[in-house]
Design a protein that fits this description.
single chain, alpha/beta, globular, 4-stranded mixed sheet, 205 residues
Length: 205
């Protein structure tokens, strides 16, 4: 399992741990059509590989984990293409949530909208100290459509979840830890190692 540096999704497999890296730092790792298709394909391959014991999902760059759907790309789509993209995003989140192996989101920066939702679909979230979580869809007159309205309340309770969904409020890593949205907060330079250490502790069992 491999990928080249020109791919929008980098794939690495080592010692039973598959690491998927969203690789669009120039677009803040936004979820366009190509990267969503590549992510779906990678998850299918990972699920079919008995040698993979744990998944880590992270992203390139230090500014953003993922800022959700690529709105610039979507602006050029017709209605049918937008609906198809919405369905693919939902499939990504559902596929992540349904994996038969543990999954860890290593969140290095902004996790907004669909980016927050794909992190919610993972079993665990480890955040860099500067990470920010938010569901800003209400500002566009829509609701979080990739499972955020279901998964967030299960993690942090319905009242806090409604606060984030109804107000588009952003919370930092420390508050996310306090609320139970993430399990660890570490310095940026230690994020991937922390995720790998945690993944290794599960891959051995």
């Amino acid at each position: 399992m491999s990928s080249d540096n020109n791919s929008q999704l980098l794939i690495r497999l080592e010692a039973g741990i598959a690491t998927l890296t969203l690789n669009r730092p120039e677009r803040m790792n936004a979820l366009g059509v190509a990267i969503v298709e590549q992510l779906l394909q990678a998850l299918e391959v990972i699920e079919a590989d008995p040698g993979v014991r744990v998944l880590i999902l992270t992203s390139a760059g230090e500014r953003a984990f993922c800022t959700g759907a690529d709105l610039k790309e979507r602006a050029a789509m017709d209605a049918d293409a937008r609906w198809a993209h919405n369905r693919a995003l939902n499939m990504c989140a559902d596929r992540l949530a349904g994996l038969q192996i543990p999954s860890i989101a290593a969140v290095n920066g902004l996790a907004l909208g669909g980016g927050c939702e794909i992190s919610l679909a993972c079993d665990f979230r480890i955040a860099a100290e500067h990470a920010v979580f938010a569901l800003p869809e209400v500002g566009l007159g829509i609701i979080p459509g990739a499972g955020g309205t279901q998964r967030l309340p299960r993690l942090i309770g319905p009242v806090r979840a409604k606060e984030l969904i109804f107000t588009a409020r952003r919370i930092g890593a420390d508050q996310a830890l306090e609320w139970g949205l993430v399990s660890q907060v570490v310095p940026q330079q230690q994020l991937i190692q922390a995720a790998c250490d945690f993944a290794s502790s599960m891959a051995q069992h």
